[in-house]
User: Fold this.
Amino acid sequence: MSSEATHAAHHEGEEHGSMTKKKIWGVFWILLGITTIEFIIALYLVPHGIIPLKAANPVYIVLTLFKAFYIIAYFMHLKFEKVGLIYAVVVPVLFIIGLILVLTNESHHWIDLRA
Amino acid sequence: MSTAVSPIDEVKTTPWSGGRSPFSVEYGKIMMWFFLLSDAFTFSSLLIAYGALRFSSSTWPAPDMVFQSVPFLIEHGAPLVFVGLMTFILIMSSVTMVLGVEAGHRGAKKEVAVWLVWTVIGGFMFLGCQALEWTHLHHDGFWWGSIPKDEVLKEFFVLKNGQLPAGAHTYAQQFANLFFTITGFHGFHVFTGVIINIIILVNVLMGTYERRGSYLMVEKVGLYWHFVDLVWVFVFTFFYLV
Assistant:
């Protein structure tokens, strides 16, 4: 238990100092801003034909990944952890990307089967 | 006999030999990260399966036609407004959680408790909204294994000469099954998160972490709560926007 306490004290001094109240609210405004952009695209730009639906989808996905980055890096504090922990968490995501590639490829084939 | 300790019996203190955590993170926090990673795999599998089925379908219920009501206020013509509110509530509760963690680093017991109360309230509000959303879709006729009557179903599809497009019934059924399974699984996570937050709140109030000298447990539970928010960000994009 004492090692946990010293750990916490050690962290507080060096790394946790980087996540101040001001920064927390900064991240909140970024997340809210990105969500607002998504709504503007979905409710105004696409219905009025300014952006075609096919072009909007990749934009949504990129914006979502931005939001995911801010939540993981700042709220979950991963950005300030040791690089070993960052890799331990981020690298296995390659498996998810792998499954996405396999199944999107497969689903293009299913269209013919289901037609 | 010599008193020197043989190399194999020496206490190891270097980072990678068990002396201390190589990640300089406490054990429970590493385990929380790995649990969340495995949970991320589960959610990804569900969402990727949804994506693959939707990709391979020639038509699909249009999100802005399915989700266009605000309970008690607007029945039609307000696409995505209600889900926008839900998203805002969840992001907000993530912020109150991280503010609680920040207060914990300063050892400010009262502040931690206040922020945790707000986080719990946010969690309950989200669950309430989701219950309304489910009720609304169920009222329309969607459920696991059932879809609305054709007259109602026509409101949710882009029609071809006033008729439902080919395969609409199959695709509507897939949409219903996937929607209730995935948002249900996420809602279950929110529910457990709220319960865990309440337990932690009770511990904070009883002074458990004050005696321990560290509010690290708040941080670990916070990781879980942020993960729930993270999953919602993806569910929101793939069910409501795309």
